[in-house]
Amino acid sequence: AQSVTQLGSHVSVSEGALVLLRCNYSSSVPPYLFWYVQYPNQGLQLLLKYTSAATLVKGINGFEAEFKKSETSFHLTKPSAHMSDAAEYFCAVSDGNAGNMLTFGGGTRLMVKP
Amino acid sequence: EAGVAQSPRYKIIEKRQSVAFWCNPISGHATLYWYQQILGQGPKLLIQFQNNGVVDDSQLPKDRFSAERLKGVDSTLKIQPAKLEDSAVYLCASSLKDTQYFGPGTRLTVL
Question: Cα(A11)–Cα(A113) distance, rounded to whole angstroms?
Fold first, then answer.
């Protein structure tokens, strides 16, 4: 069984500050890991994914995440927050097989203060 | 390339009524998923199709929920009868390989 824990259901940062959203996973097989962003009244948009290649993954909108097997983590970062980054962020894990079923974390709402 | 299409976007019904949602995946995507996203939570998989066959429906409440994917393209998800706790956003996603692409969702309110 796989699971995802996102520490902090709400994170608030000032515009221009570092964004750090935490994700820890558990998986009995080498995982595939994903970060999705959800804006109000919209579906989920893929930010980035890790599928066993480079451990530092760069995504859209200046976001990146690093896969750390020893820490079972896949934290999402962005050097400088922008007002438009305010949204809900979801971390998800799949095993890359069995139809790539995703297990999602509970989500982190990012708020950006001017 | 067109994304995943879903309709309707919003639906309000009373408990014990029935409702159906429609999804059209990205062209060529063999795998289609339906998720339920309750307010404040992450999406939860309800059912997964590979072409027109069911791969996993272990979390689908089969006493009231049903889904089909005729001809391996479009899919419909039905709830009959609806309960108050079914109020949620129903997301459809499709994939070709390892990445799922999501539609805008249908927001269901059960009164």
Answer: 11
* pLDDT tens by residue, B53-88: 999 999 999 999 999 998 889 999 999 999 999 999
Minimum-distance CB partner of A105 among B6, B42, B93: B42
Residues B13-67 pLDDT 10s: 999 999 999 999 999 999 999 999 999 899 999 999 998 899 999 999 999 999 9
Q: How far is CA A41 from CA A21, B8, B23, B91, in A?
A: 21, 13, 17, 11
When pLDDT is cut at 50, 70 and 90, the band that residue A97 belongs to is: low
Task: Among A102, A105, A106, select the one facing B100 at the smallest CB separation.
Answer: A102
Q: How far is A72 from chain B (nearest CA, A)?
A: 20
Size (chain A), residues: 114
Q: Could B56 and A90 be called an inter-chain contact, meaning their C-beta atoms sit closer than 8 Å?
A: no
CB contact under 8 A, B98 and A96: yes
